[in-house]
Description:
Blueprint: E1 2-6, H1 9-13, H2 16-24, H3 35-43, H4 45-48, E2 54-55, E3 57-62, E4 65-70, E5 72-76, E6 82-86, E7 99-100, H5 105-120, E8 126-133, H6 138-149, E9 152-160, E10 163-165, H7 170-175, H8 179-193, E11 199-203, H9 210-221, H10 225-230, H11 233-248, E12 252-259, E13 262-272, E14 275-283, H12 292-306, E15 311-313, H13 320-324, E16 331-338
Helix pairs in contact: 3-11, 5-6, 8-12, 9-11
Amino acid sequence: MECKVIRTVEEWEQMAEAWNALLRESASHVPFLRYEYLHTWWNTKGGGEWPSGDLAIVAAWEGEKLIGVAPLFFAENREGEPALLLLGSVEISDYLDIIARPKDLARFLDELLPFLAGQVRAGWKSLDWYNILEDSPTLPALEQAAGAQGWAYQVEKLQHSPYIPLPEDWETYLASLDKKQRHEIRRKMRRVESSEIPARWYIVDNGAAIEEEGRAFLDLMAQDPSKADFLTGPMRQQMLDTLRCAFQEGCLQLAFLEVGEEKAAGYFIFDYRNRIWVYNSGLNARFREYSPGWVLLGYLLQWAIEHRREEFDFLRGNEDYKYRFGAVDRSVMRAIVRRS
């Protein structure tokens, strides 16, 4: 196994096809690890989350076969410590990991850590890896590899990340819910459907409209004061770039509920690997009486079930509504390795 460091975007671009091919076989295959997503993320350093940083991607090859990728960059972490972090960290990429086939994961990490010690970048003090799913095989393999080097390993729970395993039909899904919640979903959807003001929901499928619809979605997001603060100029650009990229890659589900001719709610979703990944949402406060977020979520769940999606992933956050819709809990973790 030969490890190589990728320090420039130009070098990275040359391995885009091999990157995604490996990801399709990886132990962790999520949309936030696709080359296109991370390349877009790096263009704005996560919408300005990282004022500076240097690429430090490590790719391991056996001949012409790509064995593993550690998608890393060098920066000062949140504690001001020089660290090697996962590309995509921290705020806007819900699930991160390294990229390797299950059978190669442990041996890739065994090669990676001593390589990082001497070949990648002088001065780093820790591997600071955020947003790894709790059941990722990377966590025990990293702990073992760190122990072999005599390095300290620790892991901490960051956030809840609930999801819904989807059944074969809508009625089975509804029957799995608490009776009160089932009644609420049906009641709110019927109220919108029987309203004197015509309402409709739709998924954007016109590439020429993505820019306009994307900006409309961000305007909905910005009606929430906390999200308005989050949507700085660079972050807006990041979100629009990600929308365009996801549409081009065929995995965007940008959905709106309109009441009259005005957008009442919107969801930015990745439809990827036969799963729904609910990335962000926006609501128009003027239509609060219609519960537009709940109603649109109901339509999207119904669509996902009818189109045989396997899972409806709410991503990070333990908001109460997710569990009321029947979500099962799980968590994302932060793994820290400090070299001796």
